[in-house]
Amino acid sequence: MQGELIVFSGSSHPALARAIADRLGVPLGESEVLKFSNENLMVRIKDNVRERDVFVVQTSSPPVNDHLVETLIFLDALRYASAARITAVLPYFPYCRSDKKDEPRISIAARLVAELLVAAGADRVLTMDLHSPQIQGFFRIPVDQLLAAPVFMDYFKDVLFREEPKEDFVLVMGDHGAAKQFGYYADELDLPVAIMDKFRPNHSEKPVIRQVIGNVADKACLIIDDEIASGGTLVEAADMLSRSGARRILAAAVHPILSGNALKKLLESPIERFILGNTVPVAEKILGHGDRFVVLDLASLFAEAIRSIHSGSSISALFPPSVRRKA
Length: 327
Fold this sequence. Notes:
Radius of gyration: 20 Å
Strand content: 15-25%
Number of helices: 10
CATH architecture of the largest domain: 3-Layer(aba) Sandwich
Helix content: 25-40%
Distance between the termini: 24 Å
Largest sheet: 7 strands, mixed
């Protein structure tokens, strides 16, 4: 076990950081972030962190680049304040969609972020539902990737499957990659799967969906994805499902980015309910639309993972059984 545990919050999502600290039964560490007239940032650590086990909660929400630089400065300040170990808790990983070199002369920005975090002082990283699990391989320090699935599946079982029989539902995956990534939902819930056959001709976030693979006619379709950014992919999928005879359409996403006019698109779509995580601040964006949106609290998963990391115990109990069996 490292020294005494302490949790700090960056500027990006203080509500989530407070919820995590509350579940751990510890107060948030005191810190201050100053922004000067030249837009330079300074982080001041007000608590003594010498030989302590430090966790910094900072997600990738707007302004993304400011929060990323703040994270790096925060880690550096902790390192020079003699923290025993520093864990960057990044619920939504910065630049997670820039994870491969799929055209000439571009940067793999997720790998660059990994190198910057290590250079700044991170000893390990805790994150959730990476857009591509390969991002873990960009690090030479321990990286724990949590899955939001246990919280989401509890909601499905306790709410959705009580509204109508589970046999009426089919899980819908956004593409073949998502079917592989989220296959454990089908294993755990024992539900059939349909897959959207789509491709992206460019970087416009407007996919082309050619067909639905699987039976969705007269079914309650539950779309599973890791994030909602512009909403283009999700709305196009919902339209295709509607044209294919779906009786009811719902959507679940861990990271509700909701950039640009995403909210307007979603509200005009045939999706009747959106089940979202709280890895990024979302409550204010959906204010007044509580009949269409449900936000699930993921703080308990992060708190249990932090407790396990601090004590040196396994976090495997936080994963669905089918995932644990494959580990």
